[in-house]
Amino acid sequence: MIPALSIRQPWAWLIVNGFKDIENRDWPTNFRGRLLVHAGQTMARRYYDETCEELLRMGLLPASMPAYEDLPRGGFVGWTHVTDCRQHHPSPWKQDGTQGFVLRDSSPIPFVPWKGRLGFFNVPKEAVSS
Fold first, then answer.
1. Could you tell me if 14 and 20 are in contact, meaning their C-beta atoms sit under 8 angstroms apart?
2. Do 18 and 60 form a contact (C-beta atoms < 8 A)?
3. What is the mean pLDDT of residues 5-9?
4. How far is CA 82 from the centre of its chain?
5. What does the alpha-carbon distance between residue 65 and residue 62 come to, in Å, rounded to a whole number?
6. CA–CA separation, 43 and 75 (whole Å)
7. Is 3.40.50.300 the CATH number for 2-117?
8. Residue 33, by phi and psi: left (phi above 0), alpha (psi -120 to 50) or beta?
9. What does each C-alpha distance from 45 to 4, 17, 32, 38, 83 come to in angstroms?
10. pLDDT digit string (tens) for 94-128?
C-alpha cells in the first residue's frame, strides 16, 4: 500500500510542481516519507481566484500557474516527501497557527482519477506507477 493525502487545488499543483514546500494542517503528524498527492474534487472558482490574488500580492504566484479549468481534480497528481512537521518554519508558505508538514523532492505524475479521503489514506501500489 502507498500512503496518500488529499489536498485542495491549486495547492496540490503548487506542491507537486515544486513551488510550495509546506502543507498547512490543523493537526500534527508523525508520518515521514514518500507520499502520493491527491488533488481534491472540490475547488470553487471564487476560491481559486481569491487564492491567486493573494499569492500575487505575496509574490508567490508562479507565471506557470494553470487556469482554473486546467487544474485536474479528483485524482492523483504527484509525489512528495514529508520530512518534518513544525509549528514554526521560515517558509513563506507556512501559515500562523497551523501545523506545517515540511515537504521536499516533489514531482508531478500523469493524472490518475481516484476518490480521495480525509487525512492520510492508503492506496494499492497498482493504482499508480512510481
1. yes
2. no
3. 96
4. 11
5. 5
6. 13
7. no
8. left
9. 25, 21, 33, 19, 32
10. 999 899 999 999 999 999 999 989 889 999 998 88
**Which residue from 22, 35, 26, 27 is spatially nearest to 100, judged by alpha carbons?**
22
Amino acid at the residue 29: T
Dump pLDDT digits (tens) for 27-39: 999 999 999 999 9
Amino acid at 100: G
How large is the C-alpha radius of gyration of the chain?
Answer: 14
Instruction: Name the residue ranges covered by the structural domains of the chain.
Output: 2-117
Cell of 122: 492508503
- 17 three-state secondary structure: coil
For residues 10 and 48, is the Cβ–Cβ distance under 8 A? yes
Q: Where is 11: in which H helix or E strand?
A: helix 11-16
- Please give the helix or strand (H or E) that residue 2 lies within, else none: strand 2-7
Query: pTM above 0.90?
Result: yes
Q: How far is CA 66 from CA 10, 13, 75, in A?
A: 9, 9, 17
- pLDDT above 60: residue 2: yes
